[in-house]
Amino acid sequence: MTGGALIGLSGVTKVYGAGAVAVWALRGIDLAIGRGEFVAVMGPSGSGKSTCMNILGCLDTPTGGAYRFAGVDVGELSRDQRARLRRGAIGFVFQGFNLLGRTSALENVELPLIYRGMAAHERHARARTALAQVGLTGWEHHTPAELSGGQQQRVAIARAIVTEPAMLLADEPTGNLDTARSREIMDLLTGFNREHGLTIVMVTHESDIAAHARRVIHFLDGRVEADGP
Amino acid sequence: MTRAYASMLANALLLALREIRRNVMRSALTTLGIVIGVAAVITMVTIGNGATAQVTADISALGTNLLQLRPGQGFGPGRARASAPPLELKDAEAIRADVAGLAAVAPSANKAVQAIYGNTNWSTQVAGATNDFLIARNWQLDMGRQFTGGEVKAGKAVCILGSTVRRELFGGADPLGNYIRLGKLSCEVTGVLASKGQSGFGNDQDDFVLMPLRAFQRRVAGNTNVSVIYVSAQDGVSTTKVQTDIERLMRERRRIGPGEDDNFFVRDMREIVSTLTGTTRILTALLGAVAAVSLLVGGIGIMNIMLVSVTERTREIGIRLAIGALEREVLTQFLVEAAVLSSFGGVVGIVLGIAAAAGGASLLSVPLVLDPSIVVLAFTFSAAVGVVFGYFPARQAARLDPIEALRHE
Q: Which of A57, A94, A107 sits opposite B18 (nearest CB)?
């Protein structure tokens, strides 16, 4: 089930500032994540897991070491090249949903396809399919304000998977939801991982949420402290 | 490549329109400055052009190719007028004999009188002149006839009424053949002039009575003075040449030595036209400039609101960047938003401006002279304002760090 390595981090460091005020967020991370894996990332705040997620998501670049995504050295890419990589291969799900307000669910899901330059009719069709996959058929024209938290997160997941990315990065996707809604979201993510082989890397604080993943990585003080099922 | 660019522009337009729709109120307020600026420019310039056209029309109604010869030294400080000897009928005859290319030479004098018919009376001006006056001053007869040669020579008491005098004394009745009293003189009405209406300076051009110059001099004024000689040049003859010929002749006749100042002056009506239209054009340009400043202020308003909106929309921009929007796609979206808003404001401003100009023109009773080039200019300028003032905020937005932007509350 696990394919070749999608993600390879070797000796990755991240330093903010310089000299005496330098802050080492990552102190040398070596990590390999294969295609089709479902990985949970845990660790106290300040452990470097968010920094690591930003690097994995190609939003940020490492100070030292190398990050290879699908064989590409991300550290060598320009800002625009990383944006192209994100729009093509990475889906994001955030704790705070981060949908565009006063914009319908359908238009929110279409957004990444617009940046891909997809024609209108294909865009609509794919956005509708993605919304159907997260169980929101019939809610296409509701704005985030008219949707519950769980529904908003499902719109966000639809937006993340509509581009059929190689990897989905979820940053505490259930952090703002109650237990029942959290279970629904986790079932959705697990389903995408099992049925479509979608690689998922998820940050979470809660061990019962992390239990959905097949591999859990613990961060502490900018290092990987534990890595296993 | 160009196709990719076109599709990016189309996408930016789509996103910009969605963004404008998302916040109608903010968009309307952003546009307001441009709407007012464009409307002001169009209104000011259109009414100004109307006023210029009105002044030009008024003055050409006074007569075409018209020169006025008067005693004195014209207007202005240090100009003696009272001391200058008056003109005479002989001066007019000399001009007619010596100056080439003239259509009419009309010596004229006038005096304020009380005109009485039956028990109505009306205070007006009586002008003594010849039939040439009608040619030079461009008057048409509404009814009746001109003076006959005999009447002019003999100084018979006949008169032609301006339409205002006719209305005030006779109402709807036929005045021809009736006698009116001008002061103590009884005078037969032989004609009525067609109306010219109010002049651009606000006085009623139709409020006077015309009678033969000799009769006027003998029986109304009691002297042989001529206060003004109207000279009309033939079509195609240079009024400048006619003017210098008259000046040379008059200096001779009035025995003005070399180096001495003229004690008469010739005024070319076309000069007045060009002076006045020049003045109204300057006024139009000034008003237009003031309005253009308000358009500029409108542009700064756009920049201000766009900057605020970049801050307010930081998180949204972060989402777009994280999802994979390129820097230039965010830049283009914000630029297109600004351009769409300001062009839309331009269109609304043009409509409002034309409406206001139409209203103002009818209120000030000047013709509506809509200059299409000013409409095009105002629109182009408003669109350009959007792009220029939208660029700075757009660049701010495009350069945001997606991680920082996503953290922004």
A: A107
Q: How many CA atoms lie within 13 A of A105 on its CB side?
A: 30
Q: Which of B4, B11, B322 sits opposite A92 (nearest CB)?
A: B322
In a domain, B76, yes or no: no
Query: The whole model's pTM is what?
Result: 0.71
Tokens 């003004």 map to which residue?
A: B228
pLDDT tens for B204-220 read 888 999 999 999 998 88
Same domain, B282 and B257: no
Which of B326, B328, B403 lies at the smallest CB-CB distance from A59? B403
Assess whether B111 and B228 both reside in one domain: yes
Asked if the model's pLDDT at residue B131 lies above 60, the reply is: yes
Query: Which of A49, A53, A59, A94 has the most B C-beta neighbours within 10 Å, making it the best mutation to test the interface with B?
Result: A59
Least CB–CB distance from A112: residue in B14, B324, B328: B324
pLDDT at position A1 is 36
Q: Are residues B181 and B211 in the same domain?
A: yes
Gyration radius of chain B's alpha carbons: 34
Which regions of B83-200 does DSSP assign to beta strands (E)? 102-117, 120-129, 141-144, 158-161, 179-182, 185-193
Chain B contact set for A116 (CB, 8 A): 324
User: How many angstroms separate the CA of residue B326 from the nearest CA in chain A?
Assistant: 6
Examine the domain organization and report whether B295 and B347 are in the same domain. Answer: yes
Q: Could you count the other beta carbons within 10 Å of the beta carbon of residue A145?
A: 9
| A139 lies within 8 A of chain B by CB | no
Q: Are A131 and A109 in contact (CB under 8 A)?
A: yes
| Residues B403, A54: C-beta atoms closer than 8 Å | yes
> What are the two backbone dihedrals, phi and then psi, of residue B274, each rounded to the nearest 5 degrees?
-70, -35
Distance CA B38, CA B378 (A): 6
**Residue numbers of the domain that contains B395:** 7-58+275-407
Confidence label for B234 from pLDDT (cuts 50, 70 and 90): confident
The whole-angstrom distance between A80's CA and the closest CA on chain B is: 6
> Which tokens hold the place of B229?
């000689």
Measured CA to CA, the distance from residue A171 to residue A96 in angstroms comes to 9
Superfamily classification of domain A36-61+80-228: P-loop containing nucleotide triphosphate hydrolases (3.40.50.300)
Task: Judge whether B74 lies within some domain.
Answer: no
H/E stretch holding B91: helix B89-98
Residues from chain B contacting residue A62 (CB–CB below 8 Å): none
Task: Give CA separation, B396 vs B6, B310, B331, B342, in Å.
Answer: 23, 7, 8, 19
pLDDT tens track for B277-288: 788 888 888 888
- As a whole number of angstroms, the distance between CA A54 and CA A76 comes to 16
Q: Does residue B247 share a domain with residue B128?
A: yes
Q: For chain B, how many structural domains are there in total?
A: 2
The arithmetic mean of pLDDT across residues B73-89, rounded, is: 68
For A32, the enclosing helix (H) or strand (E) is strand A23-34
**Any domain includes B66:** no
